[in-house]
């Protein structure tokens, strides 16, 4: 109840919004320091074992979800989520408990673009994609502010620059980018054992590569031909129906796994 009341107070006291948001950031930072220890203690208490599951790429399902926030009289807000989910071979129609990756996206076109970017990297390699900008960190934020300042000076629009600076101040933008960079470099790496991720991420020799199914190979060829014609993935619709290629079937045997050490 205390957390709920604090949230209501922050939303109601508009004049203290910057102070409230700063307190939330400080609380989140403190939480990330203690969360790994608390999580490990709960796992030991309830005898829950973390395991690494090896899921074939062709079994992974991509989902885009629309989440409206309903109020007494109307929809008060909405958001989009993009998820990569491994299905449960032993329970058709369900995903593996505790598995999957979910991120927020700007809408359905953004989710489609995100999926196609990941798919081409996984199926065609890093040469099939272009590097994306790192929209986090203090260095990126400083460059972003410098570009906006240069544009305001070029157009001689000091009012736009004042609005920009005021908005970034209210959002605590510099602190947020510093905090994100700090978490990425110093806190999140502690979530996995030392050197485990580097060892796990080493590429397999070509002799151990899984061979894609015939349906997947045909579909990739059709997509590459469409890209060469100048078509965009977000405008193609259901590619399986469009190119007349049967859906890829999922396996019905358990995935191999090993303890997360």
Structure description:
The structure is a single chain. With 261 residues, this protein is α+β, with helices and mostly antiparallel strands. The chain is 49% helix and 12% strand. It has nine helices and five strands; from the N terminus they run H-H-E-E-E-E-H-H-H-H-H-H-H-E. Strand 2 (61-70) and strand 3 (75-85) form a beta hairpin. It is globular, with a radius of gyration of 23 Å. The model has no long low-confidence stretch (mean pLDDT 79).
Topology at a glance:
Layout: H1 2-12, H2 17-45, E1 51-53, E2 61-70, E3 75-85, E4 101-105, H3 108-124, H4 138-155, H5 158-170, H6 173-187, H7 196-200, H8 214-228, H9 239-243, E5 257-259
Antiparallel strand pairs: 1-5, 2-3, 3-4
Q: What are the low-pLDDT stretches, counting only 5+ consecutive residues below 50?
A: none
Specify Rg, calculated over alpha carbons: 23 Å
User: What is the molecular shape?
Assistant: globular
What fraction, in percent, of the residue positions are helical?
A: 40-55%
Structural class: alpha+beta
What is the count of DSSP helices, taking H or I runs of 4+ residues?
9
Query: Could you give the order of strands across the largest sheet?
Result: 2-3-4
- Let me know the number of strands: 5
Sequence of secondary-structure elements: HHEEEEHHHHHHHE
Distance between the termini: 37 Å
- Beta-strand residue fraction: 5-15%
Mean pLDDT: 79
Query: Major β-sheet, in short?
Result: 3 strands, antiparallel
């Amino acid at each position: 109840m205390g957390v709920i009341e604090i949230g209501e107070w922050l939303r109601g006291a508009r004049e203290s919004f910057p102070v409230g948001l700063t307190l939330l950031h400080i609380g989140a930072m403190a939480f990330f320091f203690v969360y790994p220890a608390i999580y490990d203690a709960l796992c030991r208490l309830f005898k829950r074992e973390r395991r690494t599951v090896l899921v074939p790429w062709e079994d992974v399902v991509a989902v885009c979800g629309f989440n409206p926030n309903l109020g007494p009289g109307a929809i008060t807000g909405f958001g989009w989520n993009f998820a990569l989910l491994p299905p449960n071979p032993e329970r058709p129609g369900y995903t593996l408990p505790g598995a999957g990756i979910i991120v927020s996206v700007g809408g359905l076109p953004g989710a489609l673009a995100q999926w196609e970017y990941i798919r081409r990297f996984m199926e065609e390699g890093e040469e099939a994609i272009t590097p994306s900008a790192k929209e986090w960190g203090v260095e990126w934020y400083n460059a972003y502010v410098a570009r906006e300042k240069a544009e305001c000076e070029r157009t001689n629009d000091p009012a736009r620059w004042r609005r920009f600076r005021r908005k970034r101040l209210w959002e605590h933008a510099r602190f947020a980018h510093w905090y994100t960079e700090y978490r990425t470099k110093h806190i999140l790496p502690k979530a996995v054992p030392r050197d485990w991720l580097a060892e796990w991420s080493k590429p397999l020799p070509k002799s151990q590569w899984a061979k894609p199914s015939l349906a997947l190979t045909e579909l990739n060829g059709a997509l590459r031909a469409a890209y060469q014609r100048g078509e965009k993935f977000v405008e193609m619709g259901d590619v399986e129906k469009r190119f007349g290629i049967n859906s890829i079937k999922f396996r019905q045997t358990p995935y191999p796994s090993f303890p997360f050490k």
